[in-house]
Amino acid sequence: MKKFLIINIVPGLILLLWVATAFGVSEAFKDNIYNPGQLKPVDSTLKVKIGEPAPDFTLPSVSGEKISLSRYRGKKHVVISFVPAAWTPVCSDQWPGYNIVKEIFDANEAVLLGITVDNIPTLYAWTNQMGDLWFPVLSDFWPHGAVAEKYGVLRSSGVSERALIFIDKNGIIQDIQVSDINVRPDLAQCATTLEKMNKK
Amino acid sequence: MYRIIQSDKRLKERVKLVGIGVGNSAFEVGYFQKTYNIPFPLFPDGDFSIHQKIGEVRTPFFICIRIKKDGSHEVFYSRVGGAKDADQLLKKLLQDSGLL
Fold first, then answer.
1. pTM listed for this prediction
2. Nearest residue on chain B to A29, judged by CA atoms?
3. Staple partner for A93: which of A4, A8, A24, B58, CB 3.0–4.6 Å?
4. What is the ipTM of this complex?
């Protein structure tokens, strides 16, 4: 706070506006967010490696369409965003942030696939609160967490890690970022990796 | 509201508007500012430290601070929610602060 007061030592006013892409703290999500508290940062062991082909999958999406990873082969780079659970604070911040940086995905010829182990009705209600997400939201609910398990990002509690998997147009994994489940990954890292992947 | 303040020479000199991005990094705040053409300064609060000091309020949240002649300061308005009418809100804030 002191930092801001220094800029105005003459009598006057400072108007502070708290803004956020952080939907988890927004008035829009008031009373609808369950706080799981601090969790073990990472609780799984990866089953995929950089440089290897990404395991294919087909999952139902909130829009009703079934989406396979292989549909993007030769056309687009793919970023898979596994987030642990709907209606939790960090996850509710993370996906709306991707709406703001859609331009970066477009510029780098990439699409984003959002995946959780929640069922479709839950994902429908949750993502509706975020406005119009530009990317498909997929349900890895049944068989429960099968895709997360295939990638080695399914935690012992049955939710997935907070993980980003970067897959190039050839279907090869170019980067894997499994972050602390309690912290939203900085969009800067995602942007940098996308640019790097597209330049290869 | 920022544009109203900037267009008035007296207000421009005496009223400053800044934004704080709760949970946002410098990259995110910069990108947000560029994307939505935000004309006033935005500051990152990536580790939520400022947000915690304020009391973990929900956003958007608005706080107005009066800077007195002796350099001390006083919060005279703090409220959650966006402004529906910038003109009316600014007028009220200026009246409450004693600047108008």
1. 0.83
2. B58
3. A24
4. 0.76
